[in-house]
Amino acid sequence: MTDARLLGSATPLAERYDLALVDLDGVAYRGHEPIEGAAAGLAGARAAGMRLVFVTNNASREPESVAGQLTSLDIPTEPGDVLTAAQACAALLATRLQPGAKVLVVGGAGLVTAVRQQGFEVVTSADDRPEAVAQGFSPELAWPQLAEAAYAVAGGAWFVASNLDKSLPTARGFAPGNGALVGAVQAATGVVPDSAGKPASTMYEIAVERHGAREALVVGDRLDTDLAGARSGGFAGLHVLTGVSTARDDVLAPPALRPHYIAADLGGLLVPHPEPVPAAEGWWTCGDAAARVAGGRLELGGAAPQGVDLVRVACAAAWAAVDAGADLDETSVPDLRVTPEDAAGVGAGR
After folding, report:
1. Half-sphere exposure of 45 (CA within 13 A, CB side)
2. Residue boundaries of the structural domains of the chain
3. Residue 120 to residues 35, 44, 93, 112, 198, Cα–Cα distance (Å)
4. CA-to-CA distance for 293 and 298, rounded, in angstroms?
């Protein structure tokens, strides 16, 4: 995956790829609420023979808790099908620390468990002289824990973050994520942490090694984490439009953040994905949609005024122009909407 363009697939993605590395918040659910079409899309993918591994930057929860939530949302899941940033963080710590090393954990139960299972001693105070600070998200995190982290990092402890997501989607909107909380410690100490979570491809590589795969597909809602990790790790990435990043973000994405496929939701696993193709006079077409960049502005055409095919072809036209050195007026890129019919899979693979 070296060229930053959209791919096409004449067969459903669930048949082309044998392992899906699926993000959680904004993909399988939103906060504690289900996302319409998610359970059906994942069930259909499994029925087609695709193995699912849920890979999340959330380090606060145990895999058992995540699996239980997914199962309650009609997505049957075993704890072994969940890989968290906490587990990746503990694996990163093991690359430099010896078993038994003291680690100050700032985060939830999931990170505490993962660090202990890796063979380290968990401490809660900088006075314990930890060799490292592992910070992950927890909704209960408060100033005293952040202060202990700052004291330890300022004293020379290795600073490792489970992830650097600045925000996370909830049922009420977007709330501060681990990256925002890590930023407080970074601001106090001037130390930039190493990160185990996405956009690093570490978790994807761990999941593929653990479960085995002929060809894996990353599925996520954030370009700056999920899809950036796919690009950096050499995996194909599907962007579903149910979370943080929008279709407009796709069109304006730099090469390192671009998805390989785009779908309204997880139903996109069950349909073919047409590849945009160049046409006359600078136009690109995909299904009934068309787009081109002329005079630095994105122009949309064809018989499809909205939908996934229009998003795809807008991306193809914009990316081709920008990669060829042309300027693109961002004000010419509209908010590209996906209709309920697209979300149900109609028109997602014409």
Report:
1. 29
2. 13-57+199-270, 86-195, 277-338
3. 37, 41, 9, 10, 23
4. 4
Question: Given this model, what pLDDT does residue 171 score?
Answer: 75
Preceding amide of 199 cis, omega within 30? yes
List pLDDT tens digits, range 228-266: 999 999 999 999 999 999 999 999 999 999 999 999 999
* Predicted local distance difference test score (pLDDT) of residue 340: 53
Q: CATH assignment of 13-57+199-270?
A: 3.40.50.1000
Residues of the chain predicted below pLDDT 50: 1-2, 343-350
**Is 25 labeled as catalytic in the residue annotation?**
yes
* 342 given a catalytic annotation: no
The number of angstroms, rounded, from the C-alpha of 168 to the middle of its chain's C-alpha atoms is 11
Residue 39 φ then ψ, to 5°: -60, -45
Given the residues 3, 23, 81, 265, the one annotated as active site: 23
CA distance 13 to 215: 11
Residue type at 147 in one-letter notation: A
Return the pLDDT at 173: 86
Active-site residue identified among 18, 25, 288, 309: 25
Cα–Cα separations (whole angstroms), residue 166 to 99, 140, 229, 231: 31, 17, 16, 20
Sheet holding 51-56, edge to edge: 82-84, 51-56, 19-22, 216-220, 236-240, 261-263
CATH topology of 13-57+199-270 equal to that of 86-195? Answer: yes
Q: Which residues contact 122 (CB under 8 A, 6 or more apart)?
A: 103, 104, 105, 112, 115, 116
Q: How many CA atoms lie within 13 A of 197 on its CB side?
A: 31
Q: In CATH, what number does 86-195 get?
A: 3.40.50.1000
